[in-house]
Give the backbone structure.
Amino acid sequence: MKRKHVIIAALSVLTSADCWAQPKLSIASDLKNVGEVVFQQPRRVSFDLTNAGTEPLQLQRVNSSCGCTTVEWPKGAIAPGESATVTATFDAQMLGSFYKEIELWTNADKAPAYLTFQGRVVAATTDYEGTFPIDMGVARLSTNVVEFDDVNRGDHPEAVIMVMNNSRTSYRPELMHLPSYLTATYHPELLAGGRVGRIVLHLNSERLKNYGLTETSVYLARKMGDKVSAENEIDVSAILLPGFANLSADELAKAPHMELEQDSLVFGLEKDKESQVVMVSNTGLRPLNVRSVQVHGKGVNVKLGNRVIKPGKSVQLKVTVLRDMIRNNKSTPRILLITDDPARPKTIVKVKTS
């Protein structure tokens, strides 16, 4: 009789442990107000998701409330503690107020979660500084930083830069110094004075040479024979990830697994040069190979103790910032690590200043 009690107790413990270990979807903000949206000029809205559980989170299906909204979402599993982004592109076909929903089905719950965004479609916008903060003289742009994140070989993603003709005469936008892996289309090709158009950048991932980060600069021509300068520069980056589709279930179970002590560093910039250390660990069953360590931004230097990390071992990632250079970045500097961990091939450490 005592033995039966022991067996029942053990089963109870196992059942409780199984129920406790599960993915959990956490949404930073599930409702966003995008303000004014110009008629037939697509607007992108991003939502940040985090797996607050203890098992991988998988987005199984994503639905939008109308055909005017397309959605991009992570197809791979989101590891515990990791974050991802769902991006909706809204192409307004009617004037007036709107309220749109995105339905997320995950393995964390039997019921869907919802992301919503709202705003107002207008024929033309007067919020030039808010909607088009980048002033290039004859034209104002929605952004001068384009990032193609989490690209797999064979992908052909697009990125949109909204452009407003800041003059009274017609203007023909054109990007100069495009590398072989980028092409651009212009909608419309000739932009009337005061009107809004789109520059669409197309990435051909087959032409990217290396895994990890590839960076370049392209330049907006503001007039015939325009020259390149910091004033008309647009930064473009792409992150190419290794593929693991051919791995068997046994290989995935024995794969290396990278864990990071922290994914964000804050520097006070009290000295000309400051350093901090982040521990990089392998909790998997096979050696972890760090294929690439790259810095996206100025004034940040890194040094990794070892590119091959044995199971159960850790190495130091030393991060050094140069005060005078780091202040010149357009966006938050990032350190990118590309590894052969199938669940986490890309890891980013953000470098912030206080």
Remarks:
- Residues 1-18 have pLDDT under 50 and may be disordered.
- The chain is about 10% helix and 50% strand.
- The longest strand covers residues 96-106.
